[in-house]
Amino acid sequence: MGYELRPGLSFCDTGSQIIFLDLAQDRYFQLPPTLADAFRTFADPARYAETAIEDLLAAGIARPSAAPRRPEPARVPLAEITFEPHGHATALKVGRALSSDMLISWQLRRGRLARLVASLREQKLARPLSQAIADLAPQVILSSYAAARLYRSPAGRCLSGSIALSRHLSGIGCASTLVIGIRAEPFAAHSWVQVDRFVLNDMAEEVRRFTPILAL
Predict the structure, then answer these.
(1) Distance of CA 169 to the CA centre of its chain
(2) Does residue 60 sit in the same domain as residue 89?
(3) How many C-beta atoms lie closer than 10 Å to residue 128's C-beta?
(4) Residue 158 belongs to what H/E stretch?
(5) What residues pair up with 64 in beta bridges, in sequence order?
(6) Model confidence at 69, in pLDDT bands (50, 70, 90)?
(7) Same domain? 53 vs 138
(8) Are 125 and 94 part of one and the same domain?
(9) Is the full-model pTM beyond 0.70?
(10) Mean pLDDT of all residues in the chain?
(11) Is the dihedral of CA 50, 57, 211, 33 positive or negative?
């Protein structure tokens, strides 16, 4: 019998804590010390123990699987450079970026994070992503979202803006990575969009303060 992480869960290990994002429940939670040690045992083949699996099954963290997979943390290149777009943002394109951000914000308030993440994943798989971030069309999109941010309160809008931006780039065939990160003490969550080591909609030094928990 094999096991896997329950679908919809992603995690990060801060060293002192293991924190999960449960997309279906739209919440973060921390494992207590006994379960954290069991989870580290489950994730490390050299430490595997059946008793650890039993504890995680009982807690709903792991489940039996015909195609077992060890849980892996989110992997994304270290954010090193803040990307500065050079495209011209027209009022129409800024309006489109703003409306996309606000629509996704409305969906998030209604608990649709899992649906939005699944939709973005399907979109990225459905078409080739061959356009470079330095091409004109992605540059215009980045400039439009940068301008649209001036019309939105900074509080609580990083996730909606990042999902909207990543979805818009994917829609024109430009690959990007939506990243959700957390800081353990005091707890805080943040999100941004990356292409390789370039941060597209935030400052690189700011996002390095967070540990990625989901990268899509």
Answers:
(1) 15
(2) no
(3) 7
(4) helix 158-171
(5) 3
(6) confident
(7) no
(8) yes
(9) yes
(10) 89
(11) negative
Give residue 150's pLDDT: 86
Q: What confidence score (pLDDT) does residue 194 get?
A: 96
- Domain extent for 122: 81-215
Half-sphere exposure in the Cβ direction for 199 (13 Å, CA): 17
d(CA 207, CA 120): 21
**Model pLDDT, residue 131:** 83
20 and 105 co-located in one domain: no
Tokens of 149: 């941010």
**For residue 19, what are the β-bridge partners?**
12, 30
> What pLDDT was estimated at residue 159?
94
The pLDDT of residue 1: 63
Whether residue 179 lies inside any domain: the answer is: yes
Average pLDDT over residues 89-95: 92
**Encoded tokens for 63:** 């489940």
Judge contact between 136 and 178, C-beta under 8 A.
Answer: no
Residue 175's pLDDT is 92
Q: Which of 129, 135, 160, 131 is nearest to 145 (CA)?
A: 160
Number of domains in the chain: 2
Residues 108 and 9 in one domain: no
DSSP structure class, residue 62? E
Return d(Cα 13, Cα 185) in angstroms, integer: 13
- Residue 70 forms part of a structural domain: no
Cβ-contact 103, 152 below 8 angstroms: no
